[in-house]
Each structure stands twice: as structure tokens, then as C-alpha cells.
Amino acid sequence: MTDHPSDPILSVENLSIHYRGTPRPAVRNVSFTLGRERLGIVGESGSGKSTVGRALLRLLPTAEITADRMSFKGIDLLRASEKDMLHVRGAQMSMILQDPKFSLNPIQRCGDQITEAYLTHNKCPKREARARTLDMLEAVQIRDPERVYGLYPHEVSGGMGQRIMIAMMLLTNPSLVIADEPTSALDVTVRLQVLGILDALVRDKGIGLIMISHDLNLVRNFCDRVLIMYAGQVVESLKASELDNAQHPYSRGLLAAQPRIGGGRGTLPVLQRRPEWSEPVEASS
Ligand SMILES: Nc1ncnc2c1ncn2[C@@H]1O[C@H](COP(=O)(O)OP(=O)(O)OP(=O)(O)O)[C@@H](O)[C@H]1O
């Protein structure tokens, strides 16, 4: 079990993932550890970020997953039975996806969905689960939890839907939350509110967070460490505060392609890609 804040919650060594029927692995030799911290995974579309997140939850029925190690709080995720994974998913490890519209059940009231998810993993009277749901809705800064409890997903805004998802994912007290582009469907103000909520909850509860994103500015400000992925591999791993000093030419290209306030109106450079970056590299942690 993980007791000390600096103990890794998650340890991944040489993770490779190959979707069956595709010519090459989507992810190759990815290694990293995660403590009670916020780890960003960035890279262009198709670089394998979401595939890594889904592999941790073993949500890839059409892929071969191999690794020297993929352990979460002492559980061997490669060899855990499906029954064991049912206890891990949603209870100890949760995933927040981009758009709540596709994650919430459209024909069930939002509050009932959270209560039901809680009761799947915890035995308690329904009344108590409902009260916990209302408390959690309040914790994610929903002002009128009783009213929102009774709304259907189509009746809530994108930002509120995402708070509802966060409430659902955090109510079971997970040790690890994987947030896959959790705010990219939100406008800037709501995005900052949702990130603030996630940040406070992660800090207060000592959760490990993996933030999957395209947005370098977001991970620079929000995360402690960053993995930069290209063509299924981690090309660079560094502290978020040192992101601007990234060395790999792909990372430098990503940084240079970011528009900056006050950066002038010139054309942004086109991101260069070289074949040798797709060659196998030494695993980094
Ligand atoms: N179910 C699947 N079957 C076959 N190939 C897949 C499947 N899902 C993803 N891939 C491929 O795996 C590679 C990595 O995809 P992945 O979605 O992990 O990238 P990503 O970095 O998360 O991209 P995005 O930012 O667009 O979500 C891509 O080449 C993608 O086409």
C-alpha cells in the first residue's frame, strides 16, 4: 500500500501497446512513475497519450499490452483479473473525459448517476450515498446541489456537466485520476474554474493526477512534471517549471508553435518532424 506522499502510486516500465490489425505499436517503451503529484502528458494528436491512459485502466480490448512493469498501489495491472479490475476502475483509479455529454447517461438524473456509481463500490444506505453526493456537488462548487441532483444531463451546461463528472469520479476517493483533455470543451473562464476545483481536490485529498492535454500552457501552469510524447514514445520528461528549457527538437518545435500574447503577428513556425524521432529511444522516467 502507498503511505508516504513520495512513494509512487503508479510505476510503469517499458509499456508498449499495439492495436491488433494495425501496422505498428501506438505506444512504445513508455516508462514513468507517479506519486501524489500532477503529471502532464502532452503531444500532438495521435502521439499515444489517451492510449496510455486507457491502458492503465485496461480499457483496450483490441490491443496487446506489454510492459516490464505496470503496477498501481501494489496491484499488477498487467496480470490483475477482470474481477480485480472492477474494484480498481472507478473506485481507486478514475478517468475524467473531455466531454460530459458522452460520459453521462442521457436518460438518468445527474445526481442518481453519481449515487449509483458510489454504491457500486461502497456498501451503505442509499440515503447516505445521496447525502455524500450532495456534499460532493457542493465541493465542486455547484451552488444549488439539490436542484442540480435532479437535472438530466441535457439540462446542464458543459462546465456544470464537467463538475458533475469530477464529483462522480472523486466521490469514491480514488488514489489516481486520469483526466483526458478535461477542459478542452469548455470556454476559458469555465476552464479555469474547473481546473481550480480539480487542483484543490487533488491537493486536499493527496491524489495522483495524470493530465492528458494538447495544451502546453495548461500543463506548464497546472502540472508538476510533464512527459512529452511523439509517435508513441516519450521523447522528453521534465519538471513543468522547466518546460521552456526542453531540449528535444520536437519539444522545442511544440514550444515554438505556441502563440504568445505580445509575441507579434508573424506566422507561427510549422512543426517539423524527423523520421529518426520515431526510432526506438532509451526508456526515460
Ligand atoms: N481503437 C483503436 N484501434 C486502432 N488504432 C487506434 C485505436 N485508438 C487509437 N488508435 C491509434 O493509436 C494512435 C494513438 O492514438 P491516441 O488516441 O492514443 O493518441 P492521442 O495522443 O491521445 O491523440 P488525441 O490527442 O487526438 O486524442 C493513433 O495512431 C490512433 O490512430
Automatic annotation (TrEMBL):
<keyword id="KW-0067">ATP-binding</keyword>
<dbReference type="InterPro" id="IPR050388">
    <property type="entry name" value="ABC_Ni/Peptide_Import"/>
</dbReference>
<dbReference type="GO" id="GO:0005524">
    <property type="term" value="F:ATP binding"/>
</dbReference>
<dbReference type="GO" id="GO:0016887">
    <property type="term" value="F:ATP hydrolysis activity"/>
</dbReference>
<dbReference type="GO" id="GO:0005886">
    <property type="term" value="C:plasma membrane"/>
</dbReference>
<keyword id="KW-0547">Nucleotide-binding</keyword>
<dbReference type="InterPro" id="IPR003439">
    <property type="entry name" value="ABC_transporter-like_ATP-bd"/>
</dbReference>
<feature type="domain" description="ABC transporter">
    <location>
        <begin position="10"/>
        <end position="256"/>
    </location>
</feature>
<dbReference type="Pfam" id="PF00005">
    <property type="entry name" value="ABC_tran"/>
</dbReference>
<dbReference type="InterPro" id="IPR027417">
    <property type="entry name" value="P-loop_NTPase"/>
</dbReference>
<keyword id="KW-1003">Cell membrane</keyword>
<keyword id="KW-0813">Transport</keyword>
<comment type="similarity">
    <text>Belongs to the ABC transporter superfamily.</text>
</comment>
<keyword id="KW-0472">Membrane</keyword>
<protein>
    <submittedName>
        <fullName>Peptide/nickel transport system ATP-binding protein</fullName>
    </submittedName>
</protein>
<dbReference type="InterPro" id="IPR003593">
    <property type="entry name" value="AAA+_ATPase"/>
</dbReference>
